[in-house]
Amino acid sequence: MTNVVVVGSQWGDEGKGKIVDWLSERADIVVRFQGGHNAGHTLVIDGVSYKLSLLPSGVVRPGKLAVIGNGVVIDPHALIAEIDKLAAQGVKITPENLRIADNATLILSLHRELDGIREDAASNSGTKIGTTRRGIGPAYEDKVGRRAIRVMDLADLGTLPAKVDRLLTHHNALRRGLGETEVSHQAIMDELSAVAERVLPFMDTVWLLLDRQRRKGARILFEGAQGTLLDIDHGTYPFVTSSNTVAGQAAAGSGMGPGSLGYILGITKAYTTRVGEGPFPTELDDEIGQFLGERGHEFGTVTGRKRRCGWFDAALVRQSVAANGITGIALTKLDVLDGLDELKICVGYMLDGQEIDHLPASQAQQASVKPVYITLEGWKESTVGARKWADLPAQAIKYVRQVEELIGAPVALLSTSPERDDTILVTDPFED
């Protein structure tokens, strides 16, 4: 048996929620290792939808331990609201099924405000990134700047004033420069004091907890947010998120060593989507793009923003396979392609008259590349609900095999509808 890391291999929104939920039945512990409540996914269990943004998927499964690792930035108000919302749906969250790393960074109101101020200014200057305005980036900045307030600080309100002073020295200087009113020391103290009682019962030394559980033989599922092409280092910078989204972050963001990670499962949509600004070589601004968006219900779980849609980009996913060390992929939303006469797959790009096999790191070059396509015959039969290879049309199987060959990784799972049981299992990652 092995541990499993789940990462998105594109720009996020690949359908990780269903796959993580499917895997969580086989896991003992589900660990969220990066990001914040800027990412979200929907779980459908026995006809009930649960929308999660911050809490790991394991919280909706009885007998599972959900863990928020140190790599996550936590808005305590969003955390409490999500806990209360699940409680209203009959899912009780207690320290028995949720633990939060004591050294995780908190998102405060001043982070959300700064995020919005910057995005508004960027909109006016044409440099908008398309953030969710939830304070994720500014919170990570404070973490790296060594002035963050962390979960453990809520337990020692006596030492908090000096830390708040240090934080405000930075933020109020920024706000003055931006023509905004300063934040008062007392306002931040009141904000932190108000949430301490709800958050602290879940606090734990997560690296130690996970190490002990690993030694006992527990199966651990590491759950990432967003996707590889939104990674702060390996993504389409600057149109990226503020954290590392690749599989290596599962170790750093949880406190477990890389040797404990095991199987790396890349969740991969059978076409391509992205939300927000930034390059998208295979984007379709035509009736096929509209078809994919409508058939695939392509709207963001957190923001409700319409996703941009395009053909499958094998060159991008091939990069993700390398950056993550992906063992196998879970191919999702194959059914959305049902009925199309032909399908295209991007296998590389043209840049300045030269064909290249990867997306360059340069922002200008990313905006200039043109996709190189191969064309495959589509299929008219439905793949919805298929649970074995024999249920799939021959052309659908051919498409899947072509994807495997082009990205250099096998399909471990194939998803054919939003329902969790409509999944073709080729390899169980926990048993590989």
TrEMBL record:
GTP binds at residues 12-18, 40-42, 307, 333-335, 415-417. Pathway: Purine metabolism; AMP biosynthesis via de novo pathway; AMP from IMP: step 1/2. The keyword 4Fe-4S does not apply. Keywords: Cytoplasm, GTP-binding, Ligase, Magnesium, Metal-binding, Nucleotide-binding, Purine biosynthesis. Its cofactor is Mg(2+). Binds 1 Mg(2+) ion per subunit. GO terms for biological process: 'de novo' AMP biosynthetic process; IMP metabolic process. Substrate binds at T301, V302, T303, G304, R305, K306, R307. Homodimer. This is Adenylosuccinate synthetase. It comes from Sinorhizobium sojae CCBAU 05684.
